[in-house]
Automatic annotation (TrEMBL):
Signal peptide: 1-29
PROSITE patterns noted in UniProt: PROKAR_LIPOPROTEIN, TAT
Keyword Chaperone: no
Protein name according to UniProt: Uncharacterized protein (DUF1501 family)
Entry-linked PANTHER family: BLL7424 PROTEIN, DUF1501 DOMAIN-CONTAINING PROTEIN
Alphabetically ordered keywords of this record: Signal
Length: 449
């Protein structure tokens, strides 16, 4: 029986636990003593980027409106994203207008046309399809693309995610708060070779099954703790003790932070009760108490679902983006209010964008490259990074005839840029992102040092 199989078979209320495993990657200590956190927000279902960011110049807006048909957003309704020189080349979906102040403060950036690639790829190469390196298994499949985005691996079916491998490379803290935390359930993103995210609830405290505070449950916990003094004379015993021991150790730290007042977070999220707002509020609360636990590097995972808009997209996406925009704005307010603006970088993921051409049900279908937000004080903000696609159907960026953009930036490059800011040394990037060596420009100029 493999050790990981044993670990995954151990159930516990509240979610997955950080674990240790033999044959791990060599840890690389983060430089400096400052705190840094990455917060991933996964937009499950495939967010339609074409209506999230819309070009405002006459030529490109005309192409957009012609191809979108009934789904085209009126130009006058879009929230303008002005550059420092005063030009306004793109507009935000009107439901995201709450992010305009974040943009104008220089704490929000957009990365264009990101998607899963094994190597740089042209439309002609993709259409020819003669080279196996251009093929992305399950390209338009939710399950495959979620796995690939979270693992940053297009060609392999590994069990780890790039968030987990990132923490493997940095090296987890020996005490205090866990370095990997999910507020959205278990995911591949937070699973490393020797690290795994602990799942923290968005309401209440982290609980153990059977622990009701009674004398009997306290006695069971005491007995459980005593078991950890027993010699670990086998991999099986070691695995079990690692899991349960970590739970006992970290539960108290997490619950103390969750139960301690966090006034900055409370004020910023006042009146917000959506799922994504609750998730980011928990992350914010734990970050607000960062000086009490001493953990210098943390990775958080959150998610918002419902973006598989095959029908009635206008109303559905509008509602979802309104939730996202309000939660992001509140999170940014909280992080700045606690003096962590330059220490926390928030970014979006989604398995794919959607076709520019609408279908007959007032929706869109699965596509490929999409646009993403990066937010925080360390971001080269109020700027657009990457290459915006040509919005002509069957045009130079279209993989077919529906407006499926062949990505011009890979998930690997996106992740590597965040990893370098987080503290992963350049020689360690290939351990986190194995396909990165296929790209001559491994990182992007979207983060400040």
């Amino acid at each position: 029986m493999k050790r990981r199989d044993f670990l995954h078979g151990i159930g516990m209320a509240g979610g997955a636990c950080l674990l240790s495993q033999l044959g791990a990657l060599r840890a690389f200590a983060a430089g400096g003593d400052g705190y840094k956190a990455l917060v991933c927000i996964f937009l499950n279902g495939g967010n339609d980027s074409n209506n999230t960011i819309v070009p405002l110049d006459a030529t490109n807006y005309s192409r957009y409106a012609q191809a979108r048909g009934v789904l085209a957003l009126p130009k006058e309704n879009l929230a303008g994203m002005a550059l420092p020189d005063g030009s306004i080349p793109y507009g935000l979906h009107p439901s995201l207008d709450g992010l305009v102040p974040v943009w104008e403060a220089g704490q929000l950036a957009v990365l264009f046309n990101v998607g899963m690639l094994q190597r740089p790829l042209t439309v002609a190469e993709y259409k020819a399809g003669t080279d196996s390196s251009v093929q992305i298994p399950g390209l338009f499949s939710h399950a495959d693309q979620v796995r690939q985005w979270q693992s940053s691996s297009a060609g392999a079916s590994g069990t780890t995610g790039w968030g987990g491998r990132l923490m493997d490379a940095i090296g987890s803290s020996s005490g205090g708060m866990p370095g990997l935390i999910s507020v959205a359930g278990a995911s591949r993103f937070g699973m490393g070779v020797k690290s795994e995210a602990i799942v923290v609830p968005t309401s209440g405290l982290l609980a153990l099954s059977g622990d009701d505070g009674s004398a009997a449950s306290r006695a069971r916990l005491a007995a459980w703790a005593q078991l950890h003094a027993i010699d670990k004379d086998s991999q099986l015993v070691t695995a079990a003790q690692d899991v349960s021991g970590f739970t006992l150790e970290k539960r108290g730290v997490i619950n103390e932070a969750l139960s301690t007042p966090a006034p900055v977070t409370k004020a910023a999220f006042a009146g917000l009760g959506t799922s994504i707002a609750k998730q980011l509020a928990v992350a914010s609360k734990l970050i607000e108490h960062r000086y009490s636990h001493g953990t210098r590097r943390q990775v958080f995972y959150a998610s918002l679902g419902g973006f598989d808009t095959h029908a009635s997209q206008l109303g559905k996406q509008s509602s979802l983006l309104r939730e996202l925009g309000a939660a992001l704005s509140a999170f940014n307010t909280a992080i700045n209010g606690m003096g962590a603006g330059a220490e926390v970088t928030t970014f979006t993921h989604s398995e794919f964008s959607r076709t520019l051409r609408a279908n007959t049900s007032g929706g869109t279908d699965h596509a490929w490259g999409g646009h993403h937000f990066i937010m925080g004080g360390a971001v080269q903000g109020r700027a657009f990074h990457g290459t915006f696609p040509d919005l002509r159907l069957k045009g130079p960026d279209d993989a077919d005839w529906l407006g499926r953009w062949v990505p011009t930036t890979s998930v690997d490059q996106y992740a590597a840029t965040l990893a370098r800011w987080f503290g992963v040394a350049a020689p360690q990037l290939s351990a986190v992102l194995p396909n990165l060596t296929n790209f001559t420009q491994p990182t992007l100029a979207m983060m400040r040092d």
